[in-house]
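SAMPLE LOG
Freezer: B-3
Tube label: C17
Construct: single chain, 192 aa
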Amino acid sequence: MSALPAQTRPARRWSPTAAPRLRPAPEPGERRARPRLAYAVVALASIGAIAVVQLLLSIAMTQGAYEMDEQLLRQAELQREQQKLSDDLDRLESPQFLAANAEALGMVPNAAPVYLRLSDGAVLGDPTAAAGAATSSASLVPNALIDGVPLVTERGEGETAKGGEGKPATPADGTPAAPPALTGGLPTPATH
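STRUCTURE (predicted):
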């Protein structure tokens, strides 16, 4: 044996920073793939675009909700106006208002009406002229809904039933004015 002692290398200590990196060997003809900055930019840009589109859609839906609420309020307002006009029409179509207008125009109620039977053309009743002073057409059943609504003869030319106070119309040809208002009420039939 030899007299010289064997020289040994000192043992290496393992440290995480000094560890070698291990990678699989590339195949022949294959390029080594490197991460690209363009992919990261595209991914971040698409995420940003999605966020912007979502924000714009949210704004559009909110605007649509406000417009729908405005239209619902407008619809409710128009329904109230329609109901008001329908009530006005019902008031002007009431029998009391029609009778008062007929009286204001000079018509008088007939206490002895005559009927015509269409099947054979027979006249039932005694035809006589209606007398204006004999009966009155003032309402036996008052209608408080038509108080203050001007009659046809009280409206000015071109005024409607909703128009303001007008002066009584006087005929231009000199004919006598409508007879004075009668008192007592509408005649009612004596039926049981």
